[in-house]
Write a structure and sequence with these properties.
Ubiquitin-like (UB roll), 2 domains, five-stranded mixed sheet, alpha+beta, Translation Initiation Factor IF3, single chain
Amino acid sequence: MYLTKGEADISASEYRINERIRAREVRLIGADGENVGVVETKKALEMAFAAGMDLVEVAANANPPVCRIIDYGKFVYQKTKKEKEAKRAQKVIEIKEIRIRPKTTDHHKSFKVRDARRWLEEGKKVKVRVRFRGRERDYPEIALEDLKDIAQALQDISVIEQAPSFEGRTLLMVLAPSSEKKADVKESKPKAEPAEAKAEPKAKEAKPKAKTAKPKAAAKPKAAKADESEQADPAE
């Protein structure tokens, strides 16, 4: 299958194909992957066209250039697919940041904690930065207490990836999403098994009750015989 003019122009900057190949000779790889060897470009084109495929220059810097007989449309599709899969494999974790001051009120910190919780639930890391002004850096225990409170407020969904440390005139702590919450959900599913196990003995206990009911039904004919004997006494 040959490429249309539009399809050839799309990727012309990446690969030379068919008549765009400038070298007089190429090292040819056949449609089945066999190494044909060095042949004239004209002959390689004839072989590609005879197979209903394209001649693609896959290694232009080699001497002579390496060309393959392949379906160029399929080749581009597979190449694009591999690039997309490679991008998906590269897990990029976004890092957000909240900033507070040693004098930040609890009400204002609650808004910061709310934002941090939302980001952590989305799988993002969160930097918690305390900024100092003037002589505030001389009293780091206040900032450390604030960071401790924030870490405790988010301990159900996060872990401390970087303990509080100074960076210039700031105190920085990094929180990362925790996988414990997902583990708790998985572990909670088997809890239903003991309830089912308890239900089975109850069903077994109910069976003997049904057996004891049968003799009561058999007692009815005896009552009928007793009635007949009572009716027979006056006749005597």
